[in-house]
Each structure stands twice: as structure tokens, then as C-alpha cells.
Amino acid sequence: MERRPAKVRPMGTLDFWFEFASTYSYPAAMRIGALAEARGVTVRWRPFLLGPVFKAQGWDTSPFNLYPNKGRYMWRDLERICAALGLPFVRPTVFPQNTLVAARVALTALKQSWGEDFCRAVYHDEFGEGRDIGEPFAIADIVNGFGQNPDAVLEQARTDAIKNALRAQTEEAQRIGIFGSPSFVTADGELFWGNDRLEAALEWAKR
Amino acid sequence: MERRPAKVRPMGTLDFWFEFASTYSYPAAMRIGALAEARGVTVRWRPFLLGPVFKAQGWDTSPFNLYPNKGRYMWRDLERICAALGLPFVRPTVFPQNTLVAARVALTALKQSWGEDFCRAVYHDEFGEGRDIGEPFAIADIVNGFGQNPDAVLEQARTDAIKNALRAQTEEAQRIGIFGSPSFVTADGELFWGNDRLEAALEWAKR
Fold first, then answer.
1. HSE (CB half, 13 Å, CA atoms) of B41?
2. A135 and A100 in contact (C-beta within 8 Å)?
3. Nearest to A179 among B69, B80, B180 (CB)
């Protein structure tokens, strides 16, 4: 009699919603890979734009700029968090940054093997080195570092297909109640918000 | 030769700033005692009012009411947190609640041995049982449960000394940059905000 293979328990999945301008998404992006792997959870990286989400709440910039006390606190808190994690941190001069090109390129790259590394590299340049990633040449530089052709990638990122995909993804984020970044959504629809909820989200996804 | 006693390392101290209307302050208030004791940190309970703080930011109610997506998320998140901690949770019908009497009585009670228990009891009634603690009789009921004379305590809470002390405490909170509850402030001035920062604040206080 043929022996049946042991049934493999399907791994949990987790959607990782992120906006490149978001400060607390930096440690989340740097942490999620290893933490998910340790729990056998598959992560889907889903870039979106917070601008339209904030606009719907009546904000024309980051709440960290609108509410100075909160902003001052956030920068110090982020500095402490990065220090505890051993992550480099340099506060960028420009905040929030224009992340349209980065998000479009991420959507392109995430269809390929270097997508997640690209996202981490953007966060690293922005908050680990304090650079402005808003300019296409800054993104081209990162793309180039992965041995990709920047012109081809940026051209691809400017296609209607990618523009529409990013718009659709941002609309989906709003539709499912996302109001900030990072957000994590499990297969059964549980929403978790914030770098400090990453572990809880992964545990939920694993159940 | 007389032997000198071993030098006792002074324990760390931590100021716990809280507003009774604040949802995430409920798990913080329930957790802080044991966690601080385990680390040898002394906690000073400091009730204040968020109303003036929010007003200074242009809000006339809780941001959880002003931003429905955020509010919906917070209630679900709080429910999950309480479940994980084994804390009872019933969403109160009234939110945010009028906490003026509770805060004044807390200032009175915290000068006595039943102060911290009183604060925990208020949070329990409000978020563990979903009751309205805004009415003086609800507070009188809690006071009574500690074998105290409600009339005497409420009269004491209405004195100018207590009214002024609460006003001064709220102004101090604003002066040191507090913008939400719970907040934790170490002796060297580090500010931590949120139930999810309680452990980090205690670790900082212990250093």
C-alpha cells in the first residue's frame, strides 16, 4: 500500500500595506521578512499611496506635520526604535517625501525577484541615510544597484497598466478601512496598524 | 571596623500620565503595576484631562470619533488586546466620557492607599463593564466599594485645592509635550506614548 505524504499545513498569508513616505513603515519593512519566515507566514508586499487616504480625512500633509507635538514625539520614538533594532537612522530633511515613482517602480519590481529588496533599499536610503527618494534619479540609482536597467524599469513604471494598478491598490486600501501605514491584513480580514502590531498580525495570520 | 551596608541602587521612577476617557489607558492601567514591580520601577500615577490638549490641536472630541476608520480600528484592536490579556471588555455606549469627577477623585485618592485601586476600578467599570463613569453617583459607588465615605471624598474632590491641582497637572502635561494617553515619562525626560510602549518606558526608567 502506497504511503500517503504527510499533509502539509497551508502556510498563513499576510498582506503588508505600505507607503514609502511612512516613517514607522521603515522598521516594519526591515523586520517583516525574518519574522514571517520564522512563523511560516507568506507576506504579500502591497505598496499604496497615503495621500488620497489622508485627503479623505481632511489632511493635506502628514499628521506628524499637522500636529507638531506628535511629530516631535514620532521622530524621537523612531530614533529609539531603530537604535534598539540596530537599524541606521538619519532624519531626512524632506518629510513627507514624494513617493509616486518609488511606489510605481515597486509595483513593477514586486513582479520580479528583486522587488522586496528594492522596497527595503528605498526605506534604507530614505530613513537610514536621510536621502530624498522623491526624484526619479534617486530611484534609478537604487534600481541600478540591483543590476537592472533603470531606463527600462522607469519606462515600465510609467505605463498605464502600472499607474492604474497603483490607483486600484490605493482604492482597495481605502475600501478595506486602511488609514495609515504600515498596515497588515490577514486572509480572514483582520486589520493591524503600526510597526508595533507586526508580531500580533503575524501570529493572527499563523492561526 | 564597622561594615558599611551595601549601597542600594535607587529604583527607577516613571510618571504614568492618564486620562480616564482614554481606551488604550485601560490595559495600561491594568498592566503597569505588576510590570513595574518586576523591574523595580516606582510608578507615579498622574491623572490629567485630554480635553484641553485636544482643544489645542483643534479637536472638540476624540480623534477616534473624528476619524471613523481609525475609531472602528481602535475598538477592534482594543478588543483583541483585552482578549489576549484576559481582561474583560465591553464597549461603552458613551464615548468619550466626562471624566472630570473621576480625575478629581483620583487626585484625592492617590494621596491615600486606595488611589491606584480606585483608578483601576474606574477603568474596569468603564471599559470592562461598559458603564458610564461620568456621573458623580457612579464614582460615589466605586468610592464606597473601598470602604470610603463617598460624600466626604466627593466634597474633598470639589475643593479649590483639588480643582487647581488637576488644572496644574493638565498644564504640566501640555508643557512637557504630552498629546495623548497613556503617556509615560522617565526621570530623565523621555516620553513614551501608548499602551504598546509601556515595556519600553519601564526598561528606560530602569537604566
1. 28
2. no
3. B69
Tens digits of residue pLDDT in A130-175? 999 999 999 999 999 999 999 999 999 999 999 999 999 999 999 9
Instruction: Classify B184 in phi/psi space as left (phi over 0), alpha (psi -120 to 50) or beta.
Output: beta
Neighbours of B36 (CB within 10 A): 22
d(CA A15, CA A24): 17
Domains of chain A: 13-206 (3.40.30.10)
Distance CA A121, CA A102 (A): 11
Chain A residues with CB under 8 Å of B200 CB are 80, 84
pTM (2 decimals)?
A: 0.92
Taking any CB pair shorter than 8 Å as contact, residues of chain A touching chain B are: 57, 67, 69-70, 72-73, 76-77, 80, 84, 177-180, 190-194, 196-197, 200
Q: Facing residues of A18 across strands?
A: A47
B73–A179 C-beta distance less than 8 A:
yes
Encode pLDDT of A3-56 as tens digits: 555 444 446 999 999 999 999 999 999 999 999 999 999 999 999 999 998 898
Specify which residues A13 forms β-bridges with: A42
- Contact residues, chain B, for A190 at CB < 8 Å: 76, 80
Min Cα separation A46/chain B (Å): 19
Q: Are B108 and B162 spatial neighbours (Cβ–Cβ below 8 Å)? A: yes
Decide if A116 contacts A172 (C-beta within 8 A).
Answer: no
